[in-house]
Amino acid sequence: MTTLTRLPFELTDEHLMLRDAVRDFARREIIPIAAHYDETGEFPLETVRKMGEMGLMGIEVPEEYGGAGMDTVAYVLAMIEIAKADASHSTVVSVNNSLVNYALMKFGTEEQKRKFLVPVASGQAIGAYSLTEPMSGSDAATMRSRAVLSDDGTHYVINGRKSWVTSGPVAEIVLLFTMTEPEKGHHGITAFLIETDKPGFHRGKVEPKLGIRASATSELIFEDYRCPVENVLGQPGQGFKIAMTALDAGRIGIAAQAVGIAEAAYEASLEYARQREAFGRRIGEFQLIQGKIADMKTKLEAARLLTFNAALAKIRSAQTGERYTTEASMAKLFASEAAMWITHQAVQIHGGMGYSKELPVERYFRDAKITEIYEGTSEIQRVVIARNELGLR
Ligand code: CAA
Fold first, then answer.
1. Are residues 135 and 18 in the same domain?
2. Helix or strand or coil: residue 64?
């Protein structure tokens, strides 16, 4: 059964092959285990490693750096298929691909690419992106963690606590943003590449979450962690710009994740409405259910188009240098709110069965919520879009 509207551009044979391979993998390897990992909250390391072997941890990274050498459309296609099977798995894929890899590709030196990008893109290492702190979420520049350059200028000493770090409990490499010159505000933040097997790095409290429960999230604690100056990504003081640049790419990934979750909920609802009977008729024959199906389908397709639109804008930006911030934020804003609404309707269409853990519909509903929060809340996306439109800072 296909419920998809044709895209307004042609997918290449390579795109179609990737999509079909990921769909097949997700059906065989992820769907059967998703409920178990959601229930236990364990991290699905084995399937994450397998996704790495398939090239899914470095989709847009050139082959010479361990990636698959494909484009953002390919990334979106893969994210949708994985998220449709299990949002938690797609969260791990999104952080590696669009936050860690993308920042390394754009700002990394050749040496840093060899040392950090190759293991993350090839799936040998799990990456994490650490910006948020207990008292600094949407207002990302107000962080309290600090990095101080040593007297001999060879390393920074990092102290502080980060929170809500996706893959924090398992990451081998962390892209960390911390303050080096607090008096400079945004321009005092520096990006560091952290090796988590070094002294002074500790993993803190693991967050018990409503959804994406198999995607491990934790605090990270730095106590006199010594980071060599070679592991500064970009220039000192360039960290906020690097964080925002990576989030532009990340937001396309979250939009794709939301589309995948919404698609799963929509297809389950369609099937249920075709089969479930009430008052002597299939419930899909009732206009109140038809209204929901029509609105779900329309929002789903609009979300998909905005997401591919953002992917195309990102591809164009590699040539023009123009930012695709607005396209990425619009895609994330719309797709995440659509996913929340669609999964809500899916639970309602399924009635009691939608509320039961016997079906994955309640998981889709719980998983959808995070897409309105992480990598910038819906409120922040609206701020970003409106400021760009109005030419405000
Ligand atoms: N690309 C490049 N540079 C950018 C940029 C972008 N998209 N957005 C802003 N900048 C630059 C600006 O040009 C400006 O640079 P100059 O000072 O040199 O001119 C600088 O950054 C400051 O910009 P603003 O004045 O707009 O900054 P602000 O403090 O008002 O904040 C904001 C803007 C949009 C609210 C931003 O703070 C933001 O996006 N907040 C949300 C943070 C977020 O998404 N957090 C989630 C973290 S990750 C996560 O969810 C967990 C996980 O593990 C996945």
1. no
2. helix
The answer to whether residue 6 sits within a structural domain is no
- Closest residue by Cα to residue 182 from 216, 211, 141, 151: 141
What token pair was written down for 287?
Answer: 């206009």
What separation in Å is there between the alpha carbon of 72 and the centre of ligand 1? 22
Predicted confidence at residue 5, as pLDDT, reads 67
Q: Among 69, 99, 126, identify where a domain stops.
A: 126
Domain with 41 in it = 13-126
* Number of structural domains the chain divides into: 3
User: Is 244 in the same domain as 207?
Assistant: no
Phi, psi of 251, rounded to the nearest 5 degrees: -65, -25
Amino acid at 95: V
Name every protein residue with a CB atom under 6 angstroms from any ligand 1 atom.
95, 129, 131-132, 138, 140-141, 164-166, 186, 240-241, 244-245, 247-248, 323, 325, 374-376, 380, 383-384, 393
* Probe target for ligand 1 pocket from 244, 333, 373, 378, with the most ligand atoms within 8 Å of CB: 244
Ligand 1 centroid to Cα of residue 233, in Å, is 17
CATH number, domain at 108? 1.10.540.10
The reported pTM is 0.97
Q: Is residue 2 part of a domain?
A: no
3-class SS of residue 208? coil
375 is catalytic: yes
pLDDT at 8: 79
Determine the pLDDT at residue 3. Answer: 56
> Average pLDDT per run of 10 along the chain, which is 393 residues long?
70 96 98 98 97 97 98 98 98 97 98 98 97 93 95 98 98 98 96 98 97 98 98 98 98 98 98 98 98 98 97 96 97 98 98 97 98 98 98 87
- Residue 152 vs residues 112, 155, 157: alpha-carbon distances, Å: 22, 8, 12
Q: 216 and 245 share a domain?
A: no
- Shared domain check, 250 and 176: no
